[in-house]
Amino acid sequence: MAASLxxxxxxxxxxxxxxxxxxxxxxHKFSWVGTDHYRKALAIDRSYPPGRNDPWYWYVLGGKPTxxxxxxxxxxxxxxxxxxxxxxxxxxxxxxxxLNRSFRGISVVRACIYLPHVLGGVATxxxxxxxxxxxxxxxxxxIRSAYALLDPIVRLFRQDGTTDWPVPRWLYSPSGCKPAVIxxxxxxxxxxxxxxxxALRRISPQLxxxxxxxxxxxxxxxxxxxxxxxxxALLFNLTFSSIFAMQSFNxxxxxxxxxxxxxxxxxxxxxxxxxxxxxxxxxxxxALAWILFLVLFVLVGTLxxxxxxxxxxxxxx
Amino acid sequence: xxxxxxxxxxxxRYVVLAVVCAFILLPLMWAGVSSLxxxxxxxxxxxxxxxxxxxxxxxxxxxxxxxxxxxxGNSLFITGVSVIGAVLTSSMAGYVLARxxxxxxxxxxxxxxxxxxxxxxxxxxxxxxxxDLLGWVNTYKPLIVPAWLGGxxxxxxxxxxxxxTIPPELExxxxxxxxxxxxxxxxxxxxxxRPAAVAATMLSFVYHWQDFLDPLIYLSDFMTxxxxxxxxxxxxxxxxxxxxLMATSLIALVPVVIxxxxxxxxxxxxxxxxxxxxTEPA
Lengths: 317, 282
Description:
heterodimer; A: mainly alpha; MetI-like fold; two-stranded antiparallel ribbon; 2 strands; B: mainly alpha; 2 domains; 14 helices; 77% helix; 0% strand
């Protein structure tokens, strides 16, 4: 049922993505504009050579995009995913391996680590934005006290005795906002942790015993037994975290307009603005959605295609 | 030698886990501390974790600045109705996909799995047009009705996998006793599938409680806002009362925490099973 709904919507979408822009009104008349919306988003003005202050990817594109915010948002979302996904997966894998042993209080610790994944949403974003407050937030207070500890040591090596340490302005600066959001995303890694944990639980102890009999040390057991056995879980987590990361919207929407100069203009925020803020370019927004879908399709396709090389499935189960 | 090695390993394990737990809990504790400070102490420099006195009146004040109680009520209504619908319809769909034989069943299941991979955002605009056409904008229908139509592919998947693990003899016995398909589902299968139902309940509760984008698009009347939109309003106007903002955020988290701890055991197990199923080759 859900699937048929989804499919019917996609065809509907195909129609509207080629229709004309119009304000929100009951008049649902489509007019065909062909691939204009796609061209509008992707067009590049090749007569304009990128200058020194322009983003580096303009060199790759070979000119100035006519719709610069499209590429900015795509770049921001990709940047966020490229850092947030591996960070979250590494952390969750390490935690899952530590939790894959029974000890006192394990259920409390496990629940505590999974909790943020459940909490996520507006309230936690609001809380984190207060933590990241440059002046009154606790994170910068920790950084400042670390500086205070390091200060005397550095002073020994510096003649001029500088005390002026840079304190990040996090969400209030174009360069600090993305790291802040990436740290925030690492906080919510519980979901992938649970998948890894389930995969680790399934590895049969006999494999380890056999490896030990063959004289494999701890590292080799990790490399040749544990890692191949959890590659299916890794593939799953990688796929879904990338999709979610590319689609993240709430962080960007709630934390925008703090002087980040489009630093947090994520793709979904750009799409939302196109569709639901004047002049309500629903057609253009649909084209954007399809571009995102294609990007994700290529991403997931590549992952699945290369997975034949590195994902190990247990044979004969 | 071996003993010290063991002990060292255990020590490292505890230290790392303690650090991770601190990373997870400190933000919440910091929010708790901030929410109990008087306004002038929140904005003192340098910030501190210490409290001179606990100002519990912040919580009362948080409720009066904006109709927070109203927002919570709205959220509870939307979430409650959606969760009931999602669990009911997804368990039915899961049952049919697991047990009832009909032509094209595997195709149906394949479509459900594929629909998990389609980004929800691709459907954002067409769904809006559809609901606009139906005259549902600015009502709760766009938020609730989809939950009653299948309740999400993931939940269907969860139930299907669970029903498949139930031995068919149980069902055969019911059918021999003359039960119809509906009776078998309602009196036999659903009670057995309780762990899956608990997991699905929690997941859809969390999903609907946190949902921000859909209410943002479909609701514009202030008094109909759920708590997620209410918090957003608070945030935009309460830049100057961080303590009240933290208090409201924590209030918004309370129902989720309660539901989580009620269902935690089942969810951990249920998700683990589904996780392993999903990562297997098709």
